[in-house]
Amino acid sequence: MSRFICVMHRWFVDSEGFQIDFLKAKNSHDARNEADALTYQRDHTFSKAASFVIEIGDTEGVVSRNLTWRERFTGKINRSLAE
Asked: 3-class secondary structure for 28-78?
């Protein structure tokens, strides 16, 4: 069974960074609707937000550190650094 995460980027004059939210949706259509609702809530007149939905597997998780350059280029997480 797949899970979905929403990666949201917020900016005003410059970037406010990225925020990751785990979605409760069970399919991609519901996940997109849930992400759109979150984006709408966080989008203001001056502070803008944009989001992207990513489907992840049951065993995959989110890394809570900055990725190394090797991880960025290869797309593979070094599990010994992730723990």
From this structure: HHHHHHHHHHHHHHHCCCCCEEEEEEEEECCCCCCCCCCCCHHHHHHCCCC
Burial 10-46 (b: 16+ CB within 10 A, else e): beeeeeeeeeeeebebeeeeebbebbeebbeebeeee
Sheet holding 48-56, edge to edge: 15-22, 3-11, 48-56
Count how many domains the chain has: 1
Residue with tokens 């410059």: 14
For the segment 31-52, what is each residue's pLDDT rounded down to a tens digit? Answer: 999 999 999 988 887 888 889 8
The residue range of the domain holding 63 is 3-82
pTM score over 0.85: no
Place of tokens 């992400």: 35
